[in-house]
Design brief:
By secondary structure, the chain is mostly helical. Helices cover 86% and strands 0% of the residues. The chain is built from four helices and no strands. This is Integral membrane protein-like protein.
């Protein structure tokens, strides 16, 4: 019973992590494409807030709950799908950390542009490109982690 409850929370956490990341990326990318500085500033503010409220707790919970389930099932950490999952999660995290910094910086640049009724500086757009391209391996990694969550084979345990 404890395993099933933990597995449910782990899956819900991944859905929240994945959904918040994809939703935030979509809305920020669309706001940037609009060129409307006030809209861009408001969206950046909400993306940063969503990262703090939703993404950060799930980024912490995912590996902890995953390791807890591995412990409950008495699986070796060297199990290939476990190694792959954690490696992909670390890759996504290595991309996410600079993305968070970029989002906070872009939020500040956009708020400053609104306050001064000016256009966004070129550094904003350079950061936006980095933000986008860092999201590609992060997103791909998380899709693969979800695929591993679904397809793993644990003898004696129902999927």
């Amino acid at each position: 019973m404890a395993y099933t409850a933990l597995k449910t929370l782990h899956i819900l956490s991944m859905v929240l992590l994945f959904g918040t990341g994809l939703g935030s990326a979509f809305y920020k990318w669309m706001a940037d494409r609009s060129g409307n500085v006030a809209h861009i500033a408001a969206t950046n503010r909400q993306v940063v807030l969503a990262d703090w409220i939703f993404t950060t707790p799930t980024v912490i919970f995912q590996p902890l709950s995953g390791l807890w389930m591995v412990y409950l099932l008495d699986l070796p950490l060297s199990t290939p799908w476990i190694v792959a999952s954690f490696s992909l999660f670390v890759l996504a995290g290595a991309c996410w950390i600079p993305v968070v910094w970029l989002q906070i910086r872009m939020q500040s640049l956009a708020a400053d542009a609104v306050a001064h009724e000016s256009s966004l500086p070129e550094i904003y757009w350079r950061m936006a490109r980095w933000w986008f391209w860092l999201g590609v391996p992060a997103f791909t990694s998380m899709v693969l982690v979800v695929a591993l969550m679904v397809s793993k084979d644990i003898p004696g345990v129902g999927s």
